[in-house]
Amino acid sequence: MATLQSACPLDCPDLCSLEVEVVDGRVKRVDGGTRTPITDGFICAKVRNIADHLYGEDRVRHPMIRVGAKDGTALGRFRRATWDEALDVIAERLREVRDRAGGEAILPFHYGGSNGWLTEGALATRFFRRLGASRCLRTLCALPSGMAARSLYGAVPGTALEDYADSKLIVLWGMNPSATGIHLVPIIERAIEGGAKLVVVDPRRTPLARRAHLHLAVRPGTDLPVALSVIRELFASGRADEGFLAEHTRGADELRRRAEPWTIGKAAAEAGLSDLDLGRFVDLYAETSPAVIRAGWGMERNRNGGSAVAAVLALPAVAGKFGVRGGGYTMSNGEAGWGVSAEAGIATPEPATRAVNMVELGSALTDGAPRVEVLFVYNCNPTQTVPDQNRVVRGLARDDLFTVVHEQVFTDTCRWADVVLPATAFLEHREIRRGYGSMRLYDSAAVATPPGEARSNNQVFGALLEKLGLWRDGDAMTDDELAAAIFSGDAGGRLRAQLDQHGVATPPIERPRLFVDLAPATPDRKIDLVPAALDAEARGGLYHYEADPGTERHPLALISPAISQQISSTFGQLRKGEAAAELAPADARARGISDGDAIRIWNELGEVVCRAKLSAHVRDGVVVLTKGLWRFHTRNGQSSNALIPPTTTDFAGGACYNDARVQVERHA
Ligand code: SF4
């Protein structure tokens, strides 16, 4: 037995260091390591139990080629193939389609759930760029938030999670660390023990909301007016930091003008809050220092999402919360000034080919022009993660669509594939990953042997680059060569030395404080409170509010948050039992629904049949059907994405997962 060091690249802010016990190439036990202070020896259950994922019956072990009808079933529909045969079939189809219909008839479809810079698509990206394929706009999460943060502050990290220990007020806005980013929880607990106050802004009474001094259970999609009302009140009551605004920001007068319509009363009515609670929040925020806002991704998933994030991130500037440890904001800490990127390994510029928004996959497959003839899915499970599920499945069911899926386990998307390829999981290949909460970077070697014939993304796309003649002299092809390219510059050399010595790298400034250790990375080093480019792109202009899309027929807001077992559809095969949709008791009573009843949730896009769970932790008017369900979790094989519209956020084209409006009834 050997105990080996690794790091967790799952889509989670914490980027834990791991200690992995391996016997004969097989993972026996995984636990938290100590190379990252934030991990501090403990990790979540999903990664502690990852052996169930690696060696479970759903693991794809060999290449498979379709032999039966494309009807969404699995049994008897595939035969085992060799890698050579499968890659030849794929290469032949790609070549034929590119030569006849053009590269844009090929659509790579990928996300990055459990991948870092090496396997998120280093060679895949190079391959599809050189092929002239359509581009996949990765809009399912964080694009509007990232654009808002970069536009206001430039590419700088926010407050380090460790620094929350120094905060006297912590605001969790659209963020549930008990499910996503568990290592913040003990830090918050310690801060509370030291006298800090906690405010949670979330439609649900999350575990931390139950312990909060103030919980603002906003209606989904109303974070924008709430944040604008706080801004308005800070100005109106003379508690805006005018000196800081004059010296360090641009656009304060315009922000104030745009916030003006949102009185506390008007915002509270729109968000379903009491005036008193919203006023208490303003007082707490204005009067407490250090105060930090942990901005989550929950608030971006609606029609107002981009502006909502921008308004929330403007708050610490208006209230003058920077310059002290434990003050400011945290959105993504991925922009920690690493000075290296995956592009160095890809070494091929992005072509100006057609861009397909992931949110609109259904229409791209059913109506798009040029017609998509090859869909190549990797690091993604679109039947369960993309809005307008029924339309996505209609597209995948096309007999004239050739679909390749490179996957670790046999997902619902594999059921629609023409070729399924077995993929390695993160303990089975080398990976480079930097955190977007924890500011650390790891280069982790493979520690386990892949079961069956699983191959990494780079192995697959390296072979395809060669088969299609897209390989060029001097290309970095192996993981070692790609890693060398990524760490080739001065900044990379510094990181490489740290990695070699300590097994982990830190950014140039650890625990940076804005306006003490670094300035905003905007052109004039000021916070831009109404960035012109964002204002031009935002539907209706930045900070414009679009009203709730609910109707008399579909009045309830459906949200689908992450849970501790799943922050994406990854590990869905391990989640047992039928899904339950949570309803507020009053909403259930009004519909004659009791706990455990079968219910039908529906709107004009589709329906989901599952169990009802009455919960005092859900506010009225809201239905919760959690993220990551697979078809076997509901009675009709549909998940929340069957009800989620393919509409986009006010800017950046982000997914509006929380804009589904539905009706619920007892199911016979
Ligand atoms: S807490 Fe997050 S980073 Fe840590 S092991 Fe779990 S998923 Fe990975």
The average pLDDT is 96
Major β-sheet profile: 6 strands, mixed
CATH architecture of the largest domain: 3-Layer(aba) Sandwich
CATH superfamily of the largest domain: Dimethylsulfoxide Reductase, domain 2
Per the CATH scheme, the topology name of the largest domain is Dimethylsulfoxide Reductase, domain 2
Q: Tell me, what's the shape?
A: globular
Strand order of the largest sheet: 5-4-17-16-15-6
Number of DSSP helical runs: 22
State the end-to-end distance.
55 Å
**Alpha-beta classification:** alpha/beta
Q: What is the CATH level 1 assignment of the largest domain?
A: Alpha Beta
List cofactors, ions and other ligands. iron/sulfur cluster
Percent of sequence in beta strands? 15-25%
Q: How many separate domains?
A: 3
Low-confidence stretches: none
- Percent helix, as a range, is 25-40%
Secondary structure tally: strands: 26
Structure commentary:
The protein is α/β, with parallel strands linked by helices and 668 residues long. The protein contains 22 helices and 26 strands. The strands form 7 sheets. It has a 6-stranded mixed beta sheet, with helices on one face. Strands 21-25-22-24-23-26 form a 6-stranded mixed β-barrel. Strands 10-9-8-12-13 form a 5-stranded parallel beta sheet, with helices on both faces. The chain is globular, with a radius of gyration of 24 Å. The termini are far apart. Bound molecules: iron/sulfur cluster. Iron/sulfur cluster (SF4) binds at residues 8, 10, 12, 14-16, 43-44, 47, 182.
Task: Summarize the model shown.
With 668 residues, this protein is of the alpha/beta class. It has three domains: 64-137 and 341-423 and 451-476, 3-Layer(aba) Sandwich (Rossmann fold), CATH 3.40.50.740; 144-334 and 528-537, 3-Layer(aba) Sandwich (Dimethylsulfoxide Reductase, domain 2), CATH 3.40.228; 556-666, Beta Barrel (Barwin-like endoglucanases).
